[in-house]
Amino acid sequence: MYRNAQFIVEDLEKLVHSLVSPDRIEHVNGVVDFCLRLAKRYNLDKDKLKIMAFSHDLFRDLEPRRLRKLAVGYGIEISDLLEKKPILLHGFVAAEFLRKKYGIEDEDVLLGVGYHTSGHPSFGIYSKALALADSLELSRIYERVNQLRELAFYDIDIAFVEIIRNKICYAVNNNLYLLPQTISTWNKLMEGARV
After folding, report:
1. End-to-end CA distance of the chain
2. Of 45, 76, 77, 109, which sees the most CB atoms within 10 A?
3. pLDDT tens digits for 54-63?
4. 59 vs 159: CA distance, rounded Å
5. pLDDT per position as a tens digit, 82-126
6. Which of 119, 94, 76, 73 lies closest to 16, judged by CA?
7. Contact of 157 with 123, CB cutoff 8 Å
8. Rounded CA separation 26/99 (Å)
9. What confidence score (pLDDT) does residue 193 get?
10. CA–CA separation, 67 vs 90, rounded Å?
11. pLDDT at res. 146
């Protein structure tokens, strides 16, 4: 993948421990572990997935003002929704951080990190693996999570559909915003549905 992948992984792991809350570190480590299991199952590049897993929530615990300032510095467009809920910027900031600091241009990596919360219609297998790991790592507890974990190792595409379905149902049932990318992801998935 990248010539300096091991350095990037080690650097990101250090950054996680300096920027992320102790509770979230457990989640990040769970995402790394789940990504490695998916890498083994689907013969994916482990370092690539570790980079994605360690970086996805790197900026999640920053205060909104600082997150917004980083986003502006990176030239990220802040929509009305992102202005109302600046925490949603954390994935976009992490993706730009990977691009700027490490020179990563792999679109699947950048999309996966940037849109791990919402999904994206152009997700490839690495992005899907990160989204699944983020939702299914072993500290996550909710109805059907074990069934979804099994599905993730049976068929990554079907599991991804179910994760997006789950996100939509959760948002509707809890009176939360439905993110535009989640809706467009769902619609794209339904165009080629195998479920």
Report:
1. 32
2. 109
3. 999 999 999 9
4. 27
5. 999 999 999 999 999 999 999 999 999 999 999 999 999 999 999
6. 94
7. no
8. 25
9. 59
10. 7
11. 96
- Size (the chain), residues: 195
Count of CA atoms in the C-beta half-sphere (13 A) of 146:
0
Question: Domains of the chain by range and CATH?
Answer: 5-191 (1.10.3210.10)
Residue with tokens 């996966």: 112
* Distance, CA of 152 to CA of 36 (rounded, Å): 13
Residue corresponding to tokens 């990554």: 156
Its pTM surpasses 0.90: yes
Compute the C-alpha angle 38/54/105, nearest 5°. Answer: 90
CB distance 177 to 81 below 8 Å = yes
Asked if residues 69 and 28 have their Cβ atoms less than 8 Å apart, the reply is no
